[in-house]
Records
---
Amino acid sequence: MIDTSIEYKVHDLITNRFSPREFSAKIITDKKLLAILEAGRIAPSSFNEQPWRFIVANRTDETSFERLLSCLSPKNAEWAKNAGALVLSVAKKKFDHDNSLNRHAFHDVGLAVASMVFQAMSLDIYSHQMGGFSSEKARTTFNIPDDYEPVAVVAFGYLDKEFFTDERLKQQSSSPKNRKPMNEISFANTWGNEISLEHSIKRKD
Ligand SMILES: Cc1cc2nc3c(=O)[nH]c(=O)nc-3n(C[C@H](O)[C@H](O)[C@H](O)COP(=O)(O)O)c2cc1C
């Protein structure tokens, strides 16, 4: 089932975020790109392991941008070629302290990327994450060691002007989000039990 409403007030940075395919040619300055990466660098992680690594390609550096672009699926590359920057996230699979498997490595990489996505939003820079890339090609292209796993590529960029004049695109960005309803993803006490926080707060009183 799909829910298109946003019933509870959440921050504008969150409601305004969406994943565009229409990026402008406007350059992302290195300073802004570094602020985005900084937001990822200081994210929380299990055992403070910081299992995230990032391969960063600003479009100002054509060669490195093309190298990362060439790892994307053709369908993604078609629009991602207009992004201001591409970032490949990579997870370190084992803990530094005892070399055991870090079950939360991917979780933590996603958390760092989420921090980057919202830092970018605060700078009017949108993002579009992609699983559609060749991890084998990324591994060989960037010499990624075996104990690290490529996770996703994120395209960052400003929205294209076309976005503000094309009614269809404008509508797409402002349209409500298609998401599972709250009671399908959040349970109370037991798996499958419908959540009703307002009810439980009342019960405590
Ligand atoms: C890990 C991940 C992988 C994704 N892979 C792709 C992809 O390969 N190509 C694509 O066009 N969108 C991709 N997306 C974007 C999702 O389709 C998008 O986030 C989802 O439909 C919700 O839309 P919204 O981000 O505009 O709210 C991916 C998103 C995530 C988080």
Note: The chain is about 40% helix and 15% strand.
---
Amino acid sequence: MIRKNDLSQAFLKPDTRVLFQIGDTAEYIMTNDSGVTPAQLRVFTACPDGKILSEGYRLADRPSVPGELKPADRTFADLAPGFCERTDPVTDGLLGLAVGDAFGVPLEFLPRSTVQKLHITEMLGCDCDLPFTSRWGDRIPRGAWSDDTAMTVASMTSIVEKNGEIDFEDIMKHFILWWNANRYSSLDFSFGLGNNIKHALDRFQYGMQPALQCGGKDFRDNGNGALMRMFPFSIYCIFKEMDDGETLDLIRKAAGITHANEINAMCCYVYTQFLFECLRTKNPALAYRCAVTDRKASYGELFSVETMEALALLFDGLAGSSFDKDRIRESGYVVDSLLTALYSVLHTENFENAILTAVGFGYDTDTNAAITGSIAGAMYARKGIPARWLSVLRKQEELTGLAKAFSACIG
Ligand SMILES: [Mg+2]
């Protein structure tokens, strides 16, 4: 069950300082205060304007207990400058998603063996002197993001325009606007539409099907095109403090408008749980234990035996140092993309290396890096995204503005 208060139960490294803001108040957790032992956390709860509501200390391995935090009457401005940091997981996750997408676009569909030989570490574009032949020829400039970000933006725009309501008919209309009218694109044309999504959009606009009946239900409909745009729906569940049943219901529908097979629902649900635990713990290994290992029996109750078997590798030591990453195939299959993203976050310690690892898996490089970037961006925050990548990202201000509006209407 997802609960807002769980977000304060952080297990932090001794030198980290974190603020996680959700709703109107936030909990600041500091461990570098001179009076704090490694087992202790200094904790504040505060309003967005910096007014401190309560403060005190608690042990790092358990939540605060009643009476431990005392009422306060001061602001963060009264503390030393730079004493605490604010993070905004919606903005940072969306920027991380877009950066990963843009980084992977030129390399899309290159084999893993080719990508690994290239050792690309900089954001490239088809307007650069590429050391390989891109599927996009010379059409896509550096910093341009594709369908993954565009459909995420389209979803968020719909939710903002509906004042925080999720209306799947309206979201599908926004998807149509993206593909038919070049809205929500980083360039003046749309690109990257996948087959599963094309069929779903055709059912919606030509077959007059309700949005929730447009997603393909067959096994072959298990592309990664729902997982790549799941970030805002997952954040919505977290911000709304939905329980497991409510979360699965929303995630299943959000995926199902384009991908209605149960394997897709489970992948998007696992992604949501892992994202939440990464935000809560700031510790990918612990997040994996909480979201995956400890919940295996729970997943078994929610999903069929066949679906659990399809995701067997998820539970088979993915976080371990001895895990052979070549067990994860290079494809556009949603299970492979989920495993690629989780592996890339689990086996790295910063945003940059998470993206480089995801891209190194080859094939669907932009989608894999977009999914990875949404988690890593939200967890490591904007300061963790390399400035040299952000500086060339297209429409960064629009993305930031949309994220702020989205946070405001779902908070
Ligand atoms: Mg794409």
Note: Residues 146-148, 192, 366-367 surround magnesium ion (CB under 6 Å).
